[in-house]
Amino acid sequence: MQISQIILIVALSLGASAGTISRRHEGTGSEFAKTCTKLEIPKGANNLEAECSVAGQKKRVKTSLDLNHCLTSTGSALVPKKDGQFWGGMGCHSCEFRDKEKQKKGIMRCSCMTTQLGAFLFQEVDLNELIANRYGFLECYGYRGKKLN
Q: Is residue 10 predicted with pLDDT exceeding 50?
């Protein structure tokens, strides 16, 4: 392989990596776990529920966000992606917060299909990287959670 071809390949690889990094955090994430409590993934569900504070008010909103709008599974990791459809089928299931400490920090884990057919692996993701608290509502990539009673 010629040196010019190697340089081109490296340059393209670096450009693709940089694009992935910038898109990963585009319009998302703001340490929501610092302003939301009672984080929960209902059993058998793909949504995140929480009670979030409204900036400058004593009011709290109970909200639920469909995480299919926020994540995708690559087979080896859960990563932020708009409309990633990570849940069900060949994706992930059984999402939870492993313990109270991870729950407080917003770190979720799911059992996800790997690149080997039929094999599952627990994958963790820091939801603070992709979910925000906007006026008491959970939000990612412009999708706003629904208010719960």
A: no
